[in-house]
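---------- Forwarded message ----------

FYI, see the Carrier domain-containing protein record below. Original note from H. follows.
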Amino acid sequence: MRIDNFIDELKDALEIENENKEITLETDLRYLEEYDSLSVLAIIAMIDKNFGKQIPSSDFVKVTTVRSLMDLIGKEYFK
């Protein structure tokens, strides 16, 4: 998946309505007002749908940035 497509999917999972809100690889998800326990579940569902990977919610403890989320999914899935 292209990184820009992944970020768009992530914005959808986070229900970010402001199209101008910039999300980069270095964005710290923990400081987004939309990031909460429900959004973590939405992100897990998005990962399962797009990558066929099931990631336990307990693994999200180490996720801080978009890049660390991509690392958790697996670098081989991105181009």
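H. also flagged this: The CA atoms of residues 63 and 69 lie 6 Å apart.
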